[in-house]
Q: What sequence folds into this?
């Protein structure tokens, strides 16, 4: 008996049997495809829906609407341009903000009650 047999196991021939089958290409690609589908439904689709809703809100924006900007400034829409909106925050104080900076349209009368 060789002294290395205690450190390195001796390979013994196995009985003739079927070799383990290699994973098919379909099962190999199934996990990444499933992961992409899950990410689409959990992350991408809801974000696209929010963008669509925000775009629809900006399209319906009209003079006199009460809005809050993404910076937290509340005011009334005084004028609407192609890419800018003039928001009146107090009597005689008007700010020009980008149209995309409008975060929410408030119900009528909200600013008067504050």
A:
């Amino acid at each position: 008996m060789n002294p290395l047999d205690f450190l390195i196991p001796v390979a013994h021939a196995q009985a003739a049997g079927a070799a383990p089958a290699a994973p098919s290409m379909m099962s190999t690609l199934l996990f990444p495809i499933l992961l992409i589908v899950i990410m689409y439904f959990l992350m991408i689709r809801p974000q696209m829906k929010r963008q669509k809703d925000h775009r629809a809100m900006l399209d319906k924006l009209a003079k006199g609407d009460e809005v809050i900007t993404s910076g937290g400034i509340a005011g009334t829409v005084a004028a609407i341009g192609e890419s800018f909106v003039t928001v009146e925050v107090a009597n005689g104080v008007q700010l020009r903000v980008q149209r995309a900076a409008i975060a929410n349209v408030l119900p009528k009368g909200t600013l008067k009650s504050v």
In short: The CA atoms of residues 102 and 114 lie 19 Å apart. The domain at 62-114 is CATH 2.30.30.60 (SH3 type barrels.).
